[in-house]
Amino acid sequence: MLTSLFTLASVATALPATSNFDRMFIIVLENESYQTVLADNYFGQVLAPKGRLLTNYHAPNYIAMTSGSTDGVFMDNTADVDKTNIVDKLEAAQLTWKTYQEAYPIASGCYAGDSGTYYRKHNPFASYVNIQSSPARCANIVNASQLSADITAGAVPNYVFYTPDINNDGHDTDTSYASNWLQGFIEPLLTNQLFQNTLFVVTFDESANFLNIDTVHNQIYTLLVGAGVPANTQDNTYYTHYSILKTLQTNWGVGSLTSNDAGATAFNLR
Protein backbone atom coordinates (compact mmCIF):
# COMPACT_ATOMS: atom_id res chain seq x y z
CA MET A 1 0.00 0.00 0.00
CA LEU A 2 1.34 3.43 -0.96
CA THR A 3 0.66 6.40 1.27
CA SER A 4 1.68 10.03 1.67
CA LEU A 5 4.22 10.50 4.43
CA PHE A 6 2.10 13.15 6.11
CA THR A 7 -1.52 12.88 4.87
CA LEU A 8 -1.56 9.06 4.60
CA ALA A 9 -3.79 9.38 1.55
CA SER A 10 -3.98 6.34 -0.71
CA VAL A 11 -2.23 6.29 -4.07
CA ALA A 12 -3.27 4.67 -7.35
CA THR A 13 -2.60 1.00 -8.11
CA ALA A 14 1.04 0.14 -8.77
CA LEU A 15 2.32 0.17 -12.34
CA PRO A 16 5.03 -2.17 -13.65
CA ALA A 17 8.56 -0.88 -13.10
CA THR A 18 9.50 -0.89 -16.80
CA SER A 19 12.09 1.48 -18.34
CA ASN A 20 11.67 4.02 -15.57
CA PHE A 21 15.33 4.96 -15.22
CA ASP A 22 18.57 4.92 -17.16
CA ARG A 23 20.82 4.64 -14.12
CA MET A 24 20.57 2.97 -10.71
CA PHE A 25 22.73 4.52 -7.98
CA ILE A 26 22.90 2.39 -4.82
CA ILE A 27 24.29 3.83 -1.58
CA VAL A 28 24.78 1.29 1.21
CA LEU A 29 25.06 2.33 4.86
CA GLU A 30 25.62 0.11 7.88
CA ASN A 31 23.86 -1.73 10.67
CA GLU A 32 21.03 0.43 12.03
CA SER A 33 17.45 -0.43 12.82
CA TYR A 34 14.65 1.03 10.72
CA GLN A 35 13.18 3.01 13.60
CA THR A 36 16.53 4.49 14.64
CA VAL A 37 17.23 5.78 11.16
CA LEU A 38 13.71 7.08 10.65
CA ALA A 39 13.99 9.06 13.91
CA ASP A 40 17.02 10.95 12.55
CA ASN A 41 15.99 14.40 11.31
CA TYR A 42 17.70 14.24 7.92
CA PHE A 43 16.75 10.64 7.10
CA GLY A 44 13.19 10.94 8.39
CA GLN A 45 12.15 14.56 7.93
CA VAL A 46 14.31 15.95 5.11
CA LEU A 47 15.32 13.14 2.75
CA ALA A 48 12.31 10.82 3.09
CA PRO A 49 9.78 13.41 1.83
CA LYS A 50 11.82 13.77 -1.37
CA GLY A 51 11.07 10.20 -2.44
CA ARG A 52 9.33 6.95 -1.53
CA LEU A 53 10.06 5.37 1.84
CA LEU A 54 9.88 1.57 1.81
CA THR A 55 8.34 0.77 5.19
CA ASN A 56 8.51 -3.03 4.93
CA TYR A 57 12.01 -3.62 3.54
CA HIS A 58 14.30 -6.37 4.85
CA ALA A 59 17.92 -7.34 4.28
CA PRO A 60 20.14 -10.34 3.81
CA ASN A 61 23.63 -8.87 3.01
CA TYR A 62 25.94 -7.38 0.34
CA ILE A 63 26.42 -10.68 -1.49
CA ALA A 64 22.67 -11.22 -1.70
CA MET A 65 22.27 -7.71 -3.07
CA THR A 66 24.62 -8.45 -5.97
CA SER A 67 24.26 -12.18 -6.68
CA GLY A 68 20.73 -13.16 -5.64
CA SER A 69 21.89 -15.36 -2.75
CA THR A 70 23.93 -15.12 0.43
CA ASP A 71 25.96 -18.06 -0.91
CA GLY A 72 26.69 -19.19 2.63
CA VAL A 73 28.33 -15.88 3.53
CA PHE A 74 27.37 -15.01 7.10
CA MET A 75 26.42 -11.33 7.51
CA ASP A 76 29.13 -9.42 5.59
CA ASN A 77 32.13 -11.61 6.33
CA THR A 78 34.96 -11.53 3.80
CA ALA A 79 34.65 -14.35 1.29
CA ASP A 80 35.61 -15.48 -2.19
CA VAL A 81 32.47 -16.41 -4.11
CA ASP A 82 32.66 -18.35 -7.36
CA LYS A 83 29.30 -17.70 -8.99
CA THR A 84 27.37 -15.59 -11.47
CA ASN A 85 26.60 -12.09 -10.22
CA ILE A 86 24.97 -8.87 -11.38
CA VAL A 87 28.07 -7.84 -13.32
CA ASP A 88 27.60 -10.82 -15.65
CA LYS A 89 24.03 -9.77 -16.37
CA LEU A 90 24.89 -6.11 -16.89
CA GLU A 91 27.75 -6.79 -19.25
CA ALA A 92 25.71 -9.29 -21.25
CA ALA A 93 23.15 -6.54 -21.80
CA GLN A 94 25.92 -4.04 -22.71
CA LEU A 95 25.19 -1.94 -19.64
CA THR A 96 28.02 -0.17 -17.86
CA TRP A 97 28.85 -0.54 -14.16
CA LYS A 98 31.28 0.70 -11.57
CA THR A 99 31.65 0.54 -7.81
CA TYR A 100 33.00 3.60 -6.01
CA GLN A 101 34.73 2.71 -2.73
CA GLU A 102 35.65 5.37 -0.21
CA ALA A 103 39.19 5.14 1.25
CA TYR A 104 40.11 2.53 -1.37
CA PRO A 105 43.92 2.34 -1.15
CA ILE A 106 44.44 2.25 -4.93
CA ALA A 107 42.94 4.28 -7.77
CA SER A 108 41.34 1.19 -9.30
CA GLY A 109 41.74 -2.58 -9.39
CA CYS A 110 41.12 -5.62 -7.22
CA TYR A 111 42.68 -4.94 -3.82
CA ALA A 112 42.45 -8.03 -1.63
CA GLY A 113 42.76 -6.61 1.88
CA ASP A 114 41.53 -3.91 4.23
CA SER A 115 43.17 -0.50 4.54
CA GLY A 116 42.45 2.23 7.06
CA THR A 117 38.74 3.06 6.87
CA TYR A 118 38.20 0.84 3.81
CA TYR A 119 36.82 -2.62 4.64
CA ARG A 120 36.83 -5.18 1.85
CA LYS A 121 33.75 -6.92 3.28
CA HIS A 122 31.68 -3.85 2.31
CA ASN A 123 32.80 -4.18 -1.30
CA PRO A 124 30.98 -7.25 -2.65
CA PHE A 125 32.57 -7.01 -6.08
CA ALA A 126 35.96 -7.83 -4.57
CA SER A 127 34.48 -11.15 -3.45
CA TYR A 128 33.58 -12.59 -6.85
CA VAL A 129 36.18 -14.87 -8.39
CA ASN A 130 35.15 -13.98 -11.94
CA ILE A 131 35.83 -10.31 -11.18
CA GLN A 132 39.09 -10.96 -9.30
CA SER A 133 40.45 -12.86 -12.32
CA SER A 134 39.56 -10.15 -14.86
CA PRO A 135 41.74 -7.01 -15.11
CA ALA A 136 39.02 -5.30 -17.16
CA ARG A 137 36.44 -5.91 -14.46
CA CYS A 138 38.84 -5.01 -11.66
CA ALA A 139 39.29 -1.64 -13.36
CA ASN A 140 35.66 -0.87 -12.49
CA ILE A 141 36.39 -1.06 -8.76
CA VAL A 142 37.61 2.47 -8.10
CA ASN A 143 38.39 4.92 -5.35
CA ALA A 144 35.31 7.05 -4.70
CA SER A 145 37.25 10.19 -5.59
CA GLN A 146 36.78 9.09 -9.23
CA LEU A 147 33.09 9.95 -9.06
CA SER A 148 33.68 13.70 -9.40
CA ALA A 149 35.75 13.18 -12.52
CA ASP A 150 33.15 10.83 -13.98
CA ILE A 151 30.40 13.38 -13.31
CA THR A 152 32.40 16.12 -14.99
CA ALA A 153 33.03 13.88 -17.99
CA GLY A 154 29.41 12.68 -18.13
CA ALA A 155 30.78 9.16 -17.72
CA VAL A 156 28.83 7.84 -14.73
CA PRO A 157 27.79 4.25 -15.61
CA ASN A 158 24.31 2.71 -15.72
CA TYR A 159 24.85 0.82 -12.47
CA VAL A 160 26.58 2.56 -9.58
CA PHE A 161 27.33 0.89 -6.26
CA TYR A 162 28.68 3.43 -3.78
CA THR A 163 30.24 2.33 -0.48
CA PRO A 164 31.09 5.03 2.08
CA ASP A 165 34.03 4.36 4.35
CA ILE A 166 33.62 2.75 7.76
CA ASN A 167 32.93 6.12 9.40
CA ASN A 168 30.62 7.69 6.83
CA ASP A 169 28.48 4.56 6.57
CA GLY A 170 27.77 4.69 10.32
CA HIS A 171 29.43 1.36 11.12
CA ASP A 172 32.15 2.75 13.41
CA THR A 173 30.28 5.97 14.22
CA ASP A 174 26.51 6.38 14.52
CA THR A 175 23.35 7.32 12.63
CA SER A 176 23.91 11.04 13.14
CA TYR A 177 27.39 10.85 11.62
CA ALA A 178 26.12 8.90 8.61
CA SER A 179 23.22 11.31 8.27
CA ASN A 180 25.51 14.34 8.14
CA TRP A 181 27.72 12.64 5.56
CA LEU A 182 24.80 11.55 3.39
CA GLN A 183 23.28 15.01 3.34
CA GLY A 184 26.50 16.53 2.04
CA PHE A 185 26.93 13.74 -0.49
CA ILE A 186 23.52 13.15 -2.03
CA GLU A 187 21.91 16.59 -2.03
CA PRO A 188 24.14 17.99 -4.82
CA LEU A 189 23.53 14.83 -6.87
CA LEU A 190 19.76 15.15 -6.62
CA THR A 191 19.88 18.61 -8.24
CA ASN A 192 22.48 17.73 -10.89
CA GLN A 193 20.95 17.44 -14.38
CA LEU A 194 23.17 14.44 -15.14
CA PHE A 195 21.11 12.43 -12.63
CA GLN A 196 17.63 13.57 -13.67
CA ASN A 197 16.70 10.05 -14.77
CA THR A 198 18.68 8.21 -12.09
CA LEU A 199 17.04 6.02 -9.46
CA PHE A 200 18.84 6.50 -6.15
CA VAL A 201 18.49 3.65 -3.67
CA VAL A 202 19.56 4.62 -0.16
CA THR A 203 19.70 1.50 1.98
CA PHE A 204 21.51 -0.32 4.79
CA ASP A 205 23.23 -3.69 4.55
CA GLU A 206 21.38 -5.02 7.59
CA SER A 207 19.68 -3.98 10.81
CA ALA A 208 21.37 -3.29 14.14
CA ASN A 209 19.86 -6.64 15.17
CA PHE A 210 21.92 -8.32 12.46
CA LEU A 211 22.42 -11.56 14.34
CA ASN A 212 18.75 -12.25 13.74
CA ILE A 213 19.39 -12.61 10.03
CA ASP A 214 16.04 -13.99 8.91
CA THR A 215 14.46 -11.48 6.55
CA VAL A 216 11.23 -11.32 8.55
CA HIS A 217 12.90 -9.33 11.32
CA ASN A 218 15.92 -7.77 9.61
CA GLN A 219 14.06 -4.57 8.71
CA ILE A 220 16.06 -1.63 7.41
CA TYR A 221 15.49 1.91 6.16
CA THR A 222 15.40 2.10 2.37
CA LEU A 223 14.41 5.12 0.30
CA LEU A 224 13.88 5.48 -3.45
CA VAL A 225 14.42 8.96 -4.84
CA GLY A 226 14.80 10.41 -8.33
CA ALA A 227 13.78 9.05 -11.76
CA GLY A 228 10.24 10.38 -11.41
CA VAL A 229 9.51 8.53 -8.18
CA PRO A 230 6.66 10.48 -6.52
CA ALA A 231 7.85 12.51 -3.56
CA ASN A 232 6.36 12.29 -0.08
CA THR A 233 5.09 8.72 -0.45
CA GLN A 234 5.46 5.41 1.34
CA ASP A 235 5.19 1.82 0.15
CA ASN A 236 4.41 -0.96 2.66
CA THR A 237 4.99 -3.79 0.16
CA TYR A 238 7.31 -6.52 1.43
CA TYR A 239 10.69 -5.99 -0.24
CA THR A 240 14.21 -7.32 0.32
CA HIS A 241 17.65 -6.70 -1.20
CA TYR A 242 16.57 -9.13 -3.91
CA SER A 243 14.06 -6.48 -4.99
CA ILE A 244 16.95 -4.24 -6.07
CA LEU A 245 18.01 -6.95 -8.50
CA LYS A 246 14.44 -7.58 -9.63
CA THR A 247 13.89 -3.87 -10.28
CA LEU A 248 16.92 -3.41 -12.50
CA GLN A 249 16.21 -6.72 -14.24
CA THR A 250 12.67 -5.57 -15.00
CA ASN A 251 13.77 -2.10 -16.06
CA TRP A 252 16.50 -3.26 -18.43
CA GLY A 253 15.24 -6.68 -19.46
CA VAL A 254 18.14 -8.39 -17.70
CA GLY A 255 17.66 -12.03 -16.71
CA SER A 256 17.47 -13.20 -13.12
CA LEU A 257 20.34 -14.75 -11.17
CA THR A 258 18.54 -17.13 -8.78
CA SER A 259 15.04 -18.03 -7.70
CA ASN A 260 15.38 -15.41 -4.95
CA ASP A 261 15.52 -12.41 -7.26
CA ALA A 262 13.31 -14.09 -9.88
CA GLY A 263 10.59 -14.39 -7.24
CA ALA A 264 11.17 -11.00 -5.61
CA THR A 265 8.87 -8.01 -6.07
CA ALA A 266 10.21 -5.13 -8.16
CA PHE A 267 9.85 -1.66 -6.70
CA ASN A 268 6.78 0.32 -7.65
CA LEU A 269 8.26 3.51 -9.03
CA ARG A 270 5.07 5.33 -10.05
Automatic annotation (TrEMBL):
Gene3D superfamilies: Alkaline Phosphatase, subunit A. Pfam families: Phosphoesterase. This is Acid phosphatase. PANTHER family: ACID PHOSPHATASE PHOA (AFU_ORTHOLOGUE AFUA_1G03570) (PTHR31956:SF8), NON-SPECIFIC PHOSPHOLIPASE C4-RELATED (PTHR31956). The keyword GTP-binding does not apply. It comes from Boothiomyces macroporosus. Residues 1-16 form the signal peptide. Keywords: Hydrolase, Signal. InterPro entries: Alkaline_phosphatase_core_sf, Phosphoesterase. It comes from the Eukaryota. The keyword Phosphoprotein does not apply. One of its GO terms (molecular function) is hydrolase activity, acting on ester bonds. The lineage of its organism: Eukaryota, Fungi, Fungi incertae sedis, Chytridiomycota, Chytridiomycota incertae sedis. GO terms for biological process: phospholipid catabolic process.
